[in-house]
Amino acid sequence: MEKKLKIGLVQLAISENIAANKEKLVSHIKQCASQGAELVVLQELHNTPYFCQVEDVDNFDLAETIPGPSTELYASVAKECNIVLVTSLFEKRAAGLYHNTAVVFEKDGSIAGKYRKMHIPDDPAYYEKFYFTPGDLGFEPIKTSVGTLGVLVCWDQWYPEAARIMAMKGADMLIYPTAIGWESSDTQEEKNRQRDAWIISQRGHAVANGLPVVSVNRVGWEKDPSGQTNGIQFWGSSFVVGPQGEFLKQASSETEETMVVEVSLSRSEDVRRIWPFFRDRRIDAYSDIVKRFCK
Predict the structure, then answer these.
(1) Active-site position among 6, 92, 107, 117
(2) pTM of the model
(3) HSE-up (13 A, CA, CB side) for residue 45
């Protein structure tokens, strides 16, 4: 019997008013649930503006403990809506120790598990190494009542190793809360190349692992508080693809959007039978993959 799951994606523009952001997020989560979603996925660091555009020690005040006020809020929403909910929070683990952490809530409001972002970028306008300690929980899928979720975060989406390990450990799908956009000085051609590469990479993970992929990005323009750049125009384009990389649905690149997409979880078995990549892997010949570089 085919196993299907309705998944809600919440793609929003974020303001400097954190309370208003949370209120809007809750409203859109409930909208997804009202359309039959059993799993809802939010974008990366959804409570606040993308503060990593600058290195500012005052931004550490945005972090929260887990559990804490935000986990209490989203736990209550998950329970009220009877959904599994994937959130993305700025975690204060201890004084001077912070993580970019995805927290997954079960339908009863309990925490099903969490994932700390493993790959941390450090690029102009994306100064995440200033804020986040690399994750130490490994690539461990989170078991929930709707399936086993391979939750990764943004920069992780460029690494086939992360996707592969999640798949090898039994993930039913790969999920990427994301915050990525364009730098205003880039040409339109370069912007198109970057967005296409982002989509292609994740579709490739779906194909290589025979799994659905859910990617949820923020949208809209956010200013650079330092004034050194023209800020980031987040490109939205949140999407869901099936295990052959086929688009099931994709959001706008310009506007807020809430989508509910039905995904077949049993289709992965069918695809892996005709494309048996796991069978044909040469695990005896891959030792070089754990080296930094091979000359």
Answers:
(1) 117
(2) 0.97
(3) 26
